């Protein structure tokens, strides 16, 4: 089972793991060294903060830092109030009860807040005599650790949320192309091939793109979201082709060479453009014009009347799907031009 687990890890995941390992190791070691050098106490929570604030992207790191500092302040305030004002044992119990209840409740919706319990528990289990100093020292150490973590994420092999989002979008486009080829073949065969793998991979990659886009801090998030929407629209356009494949029991071209040849050219040109997007290769207006010409030629052939009403309906639906794909590719072209 362990060998299968390792085989299922992608190169991108290995790269992320290696980056996080390097950044975390540097953050922890540098934070400890500087705290010793500067005489800052509470080194445990400082080093812990520096390590735990590190995330795969700079945007995620900033979000984690904001949440952890806010949760730390809340935890320290709650802990300080109860420990300082209420007799020691009862104060500890109430401090733990309330701070853990509030912070973990918020952490159900904002996971980065869970780190606040470290400060609250650490303060509650200190002595009532030095509650004020302990609170300030812990807050200083945590803030220092977070600052070191952010600094390391900026200078040691940095990766932005925008770049990560674009990588997942390109992977999703590759999955879209794979699905399109299969569904097109299915419109001409009695036995339909399975697209589960392509569908699952698309869902995984587009969801990762959305998650990373949510963490974009410094760049234009709206343009990235439009790119995600265009990718989803293209993928959903292929669902029309799938419906045709599901309904047709044989080749929708019915052996007519013109329709079959033109539809093949349209599909190959569409996949050529989509794969160019996925590989960061240049797509020109000439590519789009040639694709539109192929669409129009195929449309002219398909609009020739046939006696079989169901076949005619399937062909027109197929053509509608290709038109939707054309519009989606045009929108993707405009979106990528703005990146």
Automatic annotation (TrEMBL):
The keyword Cell membrane applies. It is found in: Cell membrane. It is a multi-pass membrane protein. Keywords: Cell membrane, Membrane, Transmembrane, Transmembrane helix. It comes from the Bacteria. InterPro entries: Memb_transporter_dom. The keyword Transmembrane applies. Its main location: membrane. One of its GO terms (cellular component) is plasma membrane. Pfam families: FUSC_2. Residues 30-152 form the Integral membrane bound transporter domain. The chain crosses the membrane at residues 20-38, 69-86, 92-109, 139-157. Belongs to the YccS/YhfK family. This is Fusaric acid resistance protein-like.
């Amino acid at each position: 089972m362990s060998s299968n687990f390792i085989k299922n890890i992608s190169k991108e995941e290995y790269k992320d793991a290696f980056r996080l390992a390097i950044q975390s190791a540097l953050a922890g070691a540098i934070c400890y060294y500087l705290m010793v050098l500067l005489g800052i106490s509470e080194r445990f929570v400082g080093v812990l903060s520096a390590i735990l604030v590190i995330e795969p992207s700079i945007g995620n790191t900033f979000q984690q830092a904001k949440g952890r500092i806010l949760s730390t302040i809340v935890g320290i305030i709650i802990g300080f109030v109860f420990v300082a004002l209420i007799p020691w044992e009862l104060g500890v119990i109430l401090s733990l009860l309330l701070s853990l209840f509030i912070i973990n409740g918020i952490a159900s919706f904002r996971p980065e807040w869970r780190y606040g319990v470290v400060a609250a528990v650490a303060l509650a289990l200190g002595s009532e005599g030095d509650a004020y100093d302990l609170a300030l020292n812990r807050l200083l150490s945590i803030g220092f650790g977070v600052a070191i973590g952010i600094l390391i994420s900026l200078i040691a092999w940095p990766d932005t949320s925008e770049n990560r989002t674009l990588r997942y979008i390109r992977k999703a486009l590759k999955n879209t192309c794979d699905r399109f080829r299969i569904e097109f073949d299915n419109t001409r065969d009695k036995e339909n091939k399975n697209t589960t793998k392509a569908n699952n991979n698309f869902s995984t990659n587009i969801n990762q793109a959305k998650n990373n886009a949510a963490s974009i801090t410094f760049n234009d998030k709206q343009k990235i979201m439009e790119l995600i929407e265009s990718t989803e629209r293209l993928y959903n356009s292929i669902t029309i082709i799938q419906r045709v494949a599901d309904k047709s029991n044989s080749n929708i071209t019915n052996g007519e060479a013109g329709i079959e040849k033109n539809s093949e050219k349209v599909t190959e040109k569409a996949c050529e453009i989509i794969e160019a997007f996925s590989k960061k290769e240049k797509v020109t207006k000439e590519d789009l014009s040639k694709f539109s010409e192929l669409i129009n030629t195929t449309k002219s052939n398909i609009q020739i009347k046939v006696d079989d009403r169901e076949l005619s309906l399937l062909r027109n639906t197929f053509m509608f799907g290709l038109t939707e794909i054309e519009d989606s590719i045009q929108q993707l072209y405009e979106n990528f031009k703005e990146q």
